[in-house]
Amino acid sequence: MGSRLPCFKRRKQVGGLWAYTKDPSMTTALPSTRALISKYTCGMSDFPMPDHYPPHLTQAQFQEYMESYAKHFDLLKDIVSRNDNDTKWRVEVTVNGVPRVEEFDKLALCHGYQTYPEMPKFECKEKFEDILMHAQQFRPEDVEKYKGKNVVMVGMSSTATDVINNIISHAANMYLSHRRGMYIFPTWRDKTPADLLLSWRRRRTGFLLQRYLPGPGASYLRPASCSVPPGASDTIIPLLQAGRLTSLHGIKRFLGPRSIEFTDGSVLDDIDAVVCATGYTADLTVAPFLSSSRPPNYSGPELLPMAVSNIFRHAHPLPSLTQMESAVDAHHAWLAARYAADTTPGSFDRSMVKSWEFQGFLHEAAGTGMENLGEPRLSWVMNHGVETAHAFRVFETGKRRAWEGAREAILRVNRDVASVDFYALRRLSLTRATNTHSPPTSPTQTQIISAQPS
Ligand SMILES: Cc1cc2nc3c(=O)[nH]c(=O)nc-3n(C[C@H](O)[C@H](O)[C@H](O)COP(=O)(O)OP(=O)(O)OC[C@H]3O[C@@H](n4cnc5c(N)ncnc54)[C@H](O)[C@@H]3O)c2cc1C
Ligand SMILES: NC(=O)c1ccc[n+]([C@@H]2O[C@H](COP(=O)([O-])OP(=O)(O)OC[C@H]3O[C@@H](n4cnc5c(N)ncnc54)[C@H](OP(=O)(O)O)[C@@H]3O)[C@@H](O)[C@H]2O)c1
Predict the structure, then answer these.
(1) Is residue 80 part of a domain?
(2) Residue 427 confidence (pLDDT)
(3) Which residue's CA is minimally distant from atom 42 of ligand 2?
(4) Can you tell me the distance from the alpha carbon of 406 to that of 412, in angstroms, rounded to the nearest whole number?
């Protein structure tokens, strides 16, 4: 408590990749991007989402929400803390273009895990003469380039959906090339945002099954035949069904200036553009001692930062070094077994964690007190109702600040969800184009160049 927390960030605006930028070297949500999970489950614990936002926020609304959060809690100052303890982190930064070195006791790198484009290595790609690029470079301002063109979209996850939504009405023909398919779920199930079908109780039941019955437990959460993580899209399936998008196998190699061979042996000779929405990797050049970085599966937007801050300020003890080393060994053995069972080369995710263990650790470290929802009046609604982050701040555990508005905020979100006419809202959200917000900029723009123990 009482420590000062400088925050270095590279973009001019608050909001991470939700702050739209025209700079094609940065990953950005597009103005047409909508959040995949609804406002009821993706807000901050002590800062309710504005009533006038639709269930799924647009890029501009997400940015606006983050901006107003930062203003409300006065986070836009650039404060620098110093101390002479010799177990510090030495951080090289440029502040408004001027380089300087800072030293810190603790350092949290939250600079995103979707920074560098993951571009497939295609055989003979130099033979192709037209557009071959990663989706990170795509901007809606350039959409005219695709007018009347034959476009192959590689990858079928959410970025592919974003780009397809922008190009489909301009392109002559649009193809979707993928290696192994994907279980695609919509952001709405009938009249309800799909994330509202999950609850704290269902999630905990899933974790219990995964821990004690790993085979059937995994298929409780996703279809048994599906080895690829599922993705959300409201448009890919309808476009495929309508014949406006054609499904293709993965790209095997390029044969000529406009010619591509696919892994099933089929060839297309009239392709003008190939856009690879094939994912991203983290930028670990700032911390070369790290080998991978990816947040574990869903933990709620603030749970991980709450846990990290409690560990930093010794409100939650870390296990002993021996215990941590043996946990790391056991985790590596688990990963190695998963790797041995993996059948698609190049697709193994070595940063995966056992959510059913890690979530418990995070809640304990964050001090949410949610392991046992003893509060009788709220217990039912917290177990079976909307999974809102307000729940993280209900119980007084002494480990983090509880919020006196949390109980009412939880009841309110649940009342809203029960009373809302989602059918009408959905129709409205599908027809309304929303990008009127022009984001204010924050006073300083800083970039971490390297961070190492000093
Ligand atoms: C287009 C898109 C849409 C998404 N939609 C969803 C969604 O609907 N729901 C969901 O749950 N997740 C979604 N995701 C996942 C996404 O990762 C999160 O929404 C979220 O933005 C991650 O936040 P973050 O703070 O970890 O990273 P980011 O939002 O990437 O923020 C990292 C920040 O660090 C800055 N930075 C990077 N390097 C440096 C440096 N060296 N020095 C200083 N600053 C630096 C960056 O400029 C950026 O501002 C989406 C991802 C993408 C790419
Ligand atoms: N809110 C939104 O609307 C929104 C928009 C964009 C992104 N996002 C989020 O941002 C994150 C990144 O999404 P993303 O779509 O950029 O990446 P991603 O989720 O990592 O998906 C990459 C896609 O590319 C495929 N792929 C990878 N290598 C390939 C290759 N060599 N050939 C063919 N296909 C290949 C993958 O499937 P295989 O490995 O099976 O081939 C997968 O379909 C996700 O968390 C996503 O939910 C959200």
Answers:
(1) no
(2) 53
(3) 155
(4) 10
For ligand 2, atom 37, the nearest C-alpha belongs to 155
State the DSSP code for 394. Answer: S
Please name which ligand lies nearest the alpha carbon of 444: 1
- Mutate-to-test residue for ligand 1 from 23, 111, 449, highest number of ligand atoms within 8 A of CB: 111
Q: What domain range includes position 122?
A: 116-187+225-281+423-450
Residue 184's DSSP bridge partners are: 231
Q: How far is the CA of 252 from the centre of ligand 2 (A)?
A: 19
> Residue whose CA is closest, atom 1 of ligand 1?
29
Instruction: Note the ligand closest to the C-alpha atom of 342.
Output: 2
- Token look-up 């970085």 returns 293
| The two structure tokens encoding residue 20 | 């739209």
155 ligand 2 Cβ < 6 A: yes
Q: Per this entry, what is the length of the chain?
A: 454
Ligand nearest to the CA of 30: 1
Closest ligand 1 atom to the C-alpha of 301? Answer: 11
Atom 27 (ligand 1): residue with closest C-alpha?
Answer: 112
**pLDDT tens-digit series, residues 149-194:** 999 999 999 999 999 999 999 999 999 999 888 888 888 887 788 8
Q: How confident is the model at residue 243, as a pLDDT?
A: 95
Tokens coding 144: 């005219």
Check whether 138 has a pLDDT greater than 80: yes
Instruction: Answer yes or no: is 429 within a domain.
Output: yes
| Residue 274, beta-bridge partner list | 132, 152
pLDDT tens string 252-301: 999 999 999 999 999 999 999 999 999 998 887 777 666 655 555 545 66
Residue 83 main-chain phi, psi, to 5 deg = -165, 150
> Is there a domain that residue 440 lies in?
yes
**Whole-model pTM over 0.85:** no
CA–CA separation, 159 vs 35, rounded Å? 12
- Amino acid type, 244: R
User: Average per-residue pLDDT in the chain?
Assistant: 82
The CB of 158 under 6 Å from ligand 2? The reply is: yes
CA atoms of 296 and 308, how far apart (whole Å):
14
Tens of pLDDT, residues 12-68: 778 889 999 999 988 999 999 999 999 999 899 999 999 999 999 999 999 999 999
Q: Is 267 inside any structural domain? A: yes
The DSSP line for 165-215 is HHHTTT-SEEEEE-SS---EE-SEETTEEGGGG--HHHHHHHHHHHHH-HH
Check which CATH number belongs to the domain holding 173 and give it: 3.50.50.60
Structurally, how many domains does the chain consist of? 1
Q: Is the CB of 156 under 6 A from ligand 2?
A: yes
Please tell me the distance from the alpha carbon of residue 389 to that of residue 53, in angstroms, as a whole number.
17
Look up tokens 């060839």; give the residue.
Answer: 267
